[in-house]
């Protein structure tokens, strides 16, 4: 079958599916893939059910139902002071991954260079390459995972067309400060680069931190495509409702790609997300407190059994750096060992690197019930000590 598209034919199964399958095969607790145990907010689910029974169930507008586009614009205006025209600067997609795909294919042409930061989400590189783009990979390192002048200067040049930037960063659970955003913005402006910003974790931030969208940094309003996800905001990951926000010249082309990918998205779910985005601020703050409590529960438990935990600033995840433990195994080897021997699945962060990988960091998902986390901790209690003996 030599005629198959090598960009996709040669790809392995994603680490998320591989570890989730290993969890099923070993009857293990899945702290790998990022989905909560909880079914999601009942009032939002009821709004979707009501919209299915009493609402419109035929093709909605390709760009998204007007109520949701208005709700997105109002939401970002309220939370970030970002003024968006809902009719010309907002589009609804079938999930954040489709939003990113539409954005990448809208911007990148053959021969264009695209700056990406490792650890990098697995969908970015195949879509860049399908568009004919050339990824230029920069290596972020624990424990801070921060940007710096030297790394940006090493890759930005006259061939750079776009940069993909994930903030808050999965898997490293970093919420980037304004200093890093202003540094990246300066390079985007100097080299006339479009920033495609994967900000799906924007509401899942902790300890009083503030998510700052790159599009709000001076000089970035007309050169940034902002991607969001209702699935992450409301812990309804199976709904696959994504948002694309950008200035009209960028959004128009992204919309032309979107029309040939999924074209549109379930109208009942869109109506329910519009309802959810209009919820009072306390809902979002309470969600963060609940997630932070679960983060702290898993953090304290892991630390008590000897795991060096890196601080989680946002997302559903925390990471552990195995390097001080002297285990004589990579993060991938550790993850396969614990899913088989201790019945707990995690994700090796090296899977988020294509080259020069960090091989000592493991990601755990804490968006689980207390009982799930406690059972996982009980199972992991000997994972470090037995290996060292």
From TrEMBL:
Q: Which cofactor does it need?
A: pyridoxal 5'-phosphate
**Record domain Aminotransferase class I/classII large: where:** 28-380
This chain's source organism reads: Bradyrhizobium quebecense
- Please name one Pfam family that this protein belongs to: Aminotran_1_2
Protein's name according to its UniProt entry: Aminotransferase
Q: Mind telling me which PANTHER family this protein's record contains?
A: FI04487P
Which superkingdom does the taxonomy of this entry point to?
Bacteria
Sorted alphabetically, the keyword list is: Aminotransferase, Pyridoxal phosphate, Transferase
Q: Which SUPFAM superfamilies match?
A: PLP-dependent transferases
Matches recorded under Gene3D superfamilies: Aspartate Aminotransferase, domain 1 (3.90.1150.10), Type I PLP-dependent aspartate aminotransferase-like (Major domain) (3.40.640.10)
Keyword ATP-binding part of the UniProt annotation = no
Molecular function in Gene Ontology: transaminase activity
Q: Which InterPro entries match?
A: Aminotransferase_I/II_large (IPR004839), Kynurenine-oxoglutarate_AT (IPR051326), PyrdxlP-dep_Trfase (IPR015424), PyrdxlP-dep_Trfase_major (IPR015421), PyrdxlP-dep_Trfase_small (IPR015422)
């Amino acid at each position: 079958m030599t005629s198959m598209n090598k960009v996709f034919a040669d790809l392995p199964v994603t680490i998320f599916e591989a570890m989730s399958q290993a969890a099923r095969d070993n009857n293990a607790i899945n702290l790998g893939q990022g989905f909560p145990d909880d079914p999601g907010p009942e009032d939002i689910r009821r709004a979707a059910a009501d919209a299915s029974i009493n609402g419109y169930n035929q093709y909605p507008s390709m760009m998204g139902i007007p109520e949701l586009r208005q709700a997105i614009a109002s939401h970002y205006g309220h939370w970030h002071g970002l003024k968006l025209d809902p009719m010309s600067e907002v589009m609804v997609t079938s999930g954040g991954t489709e939003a990113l795909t539409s954005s990448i294919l809208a911007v990148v042409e053959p021969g264009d260079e695209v700056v990406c930061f490792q650890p990098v989400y697995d969908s970015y590189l195949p879509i860049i390459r399908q568009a004919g783009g050339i990824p230029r990979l920069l290596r972020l390192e624990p424990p801070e995972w921060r940007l710096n002048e030297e790394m940006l200067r090493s890759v930005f040049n006259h061939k750079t067309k776009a940069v993909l930037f994930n903030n808050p960063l999965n898997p490293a659970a970093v919420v980037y400060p304004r200093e890093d955003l202003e540094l990246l913005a300066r390079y985007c402006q100097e080299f006339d680069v479009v920033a495609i910003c994967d900000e799906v974790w924007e509401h899942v931030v902790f300890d009083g931190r503030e998510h700052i969208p790159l599009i709000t940094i001076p000089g970035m309003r007309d050169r940034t495509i902002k991607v969001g996800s209702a699935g992450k905001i409301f812990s309804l990951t199976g709904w696959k409702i994504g948002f694309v926000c950008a200035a009209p010249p960028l959004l128009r082309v992204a919309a032309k790609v979107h029309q040939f990918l999924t074209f549109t998205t379930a109208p009942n779910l869109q109506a329910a997300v519009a309802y959810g985005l209009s919820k009072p601020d306390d809902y979002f703050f309470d969600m963060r407190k609940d997630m932070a409590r679960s983060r702290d529960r898993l953090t304290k438990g892991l630390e008590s059994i000897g795991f060096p935990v890196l601080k989680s600033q946002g997302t559903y995840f925390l990471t552990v750096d195995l390097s001080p433990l002297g285990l004589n195994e990579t993060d991938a080897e550790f993850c396969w060992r614990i899913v088989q021997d201790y019945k707990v699945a995690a994700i090796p962060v090296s899977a988020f690197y294509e080259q020069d990988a960090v091989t000592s960091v493991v990601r755990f998902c804490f968006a689980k019930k207390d009982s799930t986390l406690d059972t996982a901790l009980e199972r992991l209690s000997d994972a470090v000590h037995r290996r060292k003996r």
